Protein: DNA-3-methyladenine glycosylase I
Amino acid sequence: MTERCAWVATKEPLYMEYHDNEWGVPVYDDRLLFEMLCLEGAQAGLSWWTILQKRENYRKAFDHFEAEKIVHYTEEKLQSLREETGIVRNKLKIQSVVTNAKSFLRIQKEYGSFSNYIWSFVDNKPIVNHWKTVKEVPVSTEISDYMSKRLKKDGFKFVGGTICYSYMQAVGMVNDHTLECFCHPSHVKVKK
Structure:
């Protein structure tokens, strides 16, 4: 039987697929990094499972997280999003995607890519932890708290320290798969 992190206490294929193939895997694609930042912000006060189930709805509703399109959203578009039953219809969270798109595009220009900016918080290489149990995994760290402060200073919304740490886990800046999990690097076979 395949051992997974204890937080995957389900047989839901979508959840297992996310754990097995995305969580903790380094992401360098700007569009996907932006998508995950928006989804993590949408998760605030909710469970990741709630957002994961709505992910495709979010992609459709927000033009597949193309920041160049999002920055031009009109009040009519925002109103239609607030009426969209397939996403979390929180006015502030919806508005934050537009705000974050503007900041994202500014960061891209300044740093050459959003990836360059966001990965600089971990010196451009993933932090691999060696937790025995999920109880050891922190909800935030000095790095995520610092990232939160910088993102807020750079105009981003819904980017508290805990959200930033979840984001770091989601995009592989931190690998928090527990030691018994088959996704932990100590179990991954290197291909020759």
Remarks:
- The chain has one domain: 13-175.
- The CA atoms of residues 68 and 132 lie 42 Å apart.
